[in-house]
Amino acid sequence: SCLVSDELLQYRHFVTKQLFERDLTDEEEEEVLAQFAALDPEKKGQIEWSDFLYHESLSVLQKFRTE
Predict the structure, then answer these.
(1) Whole-angstrom distance, CA of residue 7 vs CA of residue 27
(2) What is the CATH number of domain 2-66?
(3) What is the torsion angle, in degrees rounded to the nearest 10, for the CA atoms of residue 38, residue 42, residue 43 and residue 47?
(4) In angstroms, what is the C-alpha Rg of the chain?
(5) What is the pTM of this model?
(6) Paired residues of 48 in beta bridges
(7) Where are the beta strands (DSSP E) in the chain?
(8) What top-level branch of life does the organism fall under (predicted)?
(9) Fewest CB within 10 angstroms: 24, 39, 55, 62, which?
(10) Cα separation, 36 vs 45, whole angstroms
(11) Do 16 and 29 contact (CB within 8 A), yes or no?
(12) What is the pLDDT of residues 23-65, one digit of tens each?
């Protein structure tokens, strides 16, 4: 199963709204798209679900460590 960039953006918008009660900024959207591009080095336009979960897990762990 795979994700496309629009689905990743939609997910990040949802999470930001739920956690911080605000929308993503334009800069944050650009960051999400840059992260997507990094996970899609072959430029297929999609990333593997397992790659997304791995990256998201690392991101969550990093946030907990800095708190």
Answers:
(1) 18
(2) 1.10.238
(3) -60
(4) 12
(5) 0.84
(6) 2
(7) 2-3, 47-48
(8) Eukaryota
(9) 62
(10) 9
(11) no
(12) 999 999 999 999 999 999 999 999 999 999 999 999 889 988 8
